[in-house]
Amino acid sequence: MKNRHPKGLVVLFFTEMWERFSFYGMRAIFVLYMTRETMGQNPGMGWDNTEALALYGWYTMLVYVMAIPGGIIADRLLGQKKTVFLGGLLIIAGQFALAFNSHIAFYAGLVLLISGVGCLKPNISSMVGGLYREGDSRRDFGFTIFYIGINIGAMTAPLIVGYIGNVYNWHLGFALAGFGMLLGQVVYIWGQKYLKDVGNLVPVNKIEGTNKHVSLTKIEKDRIVVLLISFLIVIIFWAAYEQAGGLMNLYTEEKINRVVFGWEIPTAPFQFVPAFFVVVFGAPVAAYWHRRQRKGKETSALFKMALGIMITGSGFLMMSAAALQANTGMKAMLIFLILSYWLQVIGELSLSPVALSFITKLAPAKYSSIMMGVYFAATGLGNKVAGLVGQIAQKAGELEVFTGIFIFCVLFGLLLLVFFRKLKKLAHGAEDIKEEPLVEGEAQAVIES
Ligand code: GLN
Known about the structure:
449 residues, mainly alpha, Growth Hormone, Chain: A, two-stranded antiparallel sheet, 4 strands, globular, binds glutamine
């Protein structure tokens, strides 16, 4: 079975891969730069941990919350395609501002980055959906391919930018992140010929069946309700998943036996593991769902998301096992950590790219970018909650918190399974597959899945 995808997907894949390279590269050295002393070789800003983590928390939340204004700009002013371009420019300016050793440049750089990611991230995701017609069965798979690109960027950046920034010079690291985005922008400009019909501004009164005086139809309202409910799952999912950078990272440092063949692996490289698993297991998981769909079995987004959150939750059961072992006074086996990340990622692959795809199927045309913005804002909130959960664990104990996350995710998934048929009705067939033969000359086809 061969499924061809639109050429525009390659363009969006590489643009977003470089954007994420820039984003995760900067993120890898941000806290380290803030906390390094102001004197000595490769000096930093000399802040204490609490100050640095507070700014980091705000930053990681705001980049995603700004996706809402980014969506509004796209829907009302520029269209998704131009807003992505503007976002790219702002990110390049932001990263290069951080390349200067000055306080003003530092804050200006952060503001530029937050605005830039807010403009780029939701709209490039919406554009992926725009490559597929309504009812196209390849859409979910297309989003997984796009998601693999994200994670290639996320996987390589901390290694390269992290190394250069940490060992040589922080500002060189930030500049390198800027070059990453610059490459992304070059790919995007080059690829415009494959994106002619995607992401253009459609005046509200030209959208089929609507004019600016009509408010939303009943079907559109129902679909928005389903989307908002699915965003609740998204918040819980990211609150669990984003333990990787915080609590699980600290736990790996302190309580996991990292000695392999007599050598103790440092903690930081374990951050590479989830993104690596996404790259390796992305296609098999998407292929599994695609096969199920062809057999006519249940594959609605809500069903996948329910399973996804439960699988991710069971990853935390592995951490509970690690904590049980560590509580006896010895260090826990590394395999628990690896299995935990693996399960988390298998769950992620049934939830995160699926959610992106779901939004592009359900959001009413005139609010499509805004809904994507709200989705990313929900993920930002999830990130913030993740930080709070990590803090709670410092007092409540890791075993309790890991087990709590497991129970919460599984219960929430079960609840969703109980109600998913009702919720699916509210989607009014938005996910129905309508297979049509590809139209000749429609810029189809280069990558095969
Ligand atoms: N890890 C994914 C990315 O960086 C998803 C992030 C999110 O949705 N908050 O794109």
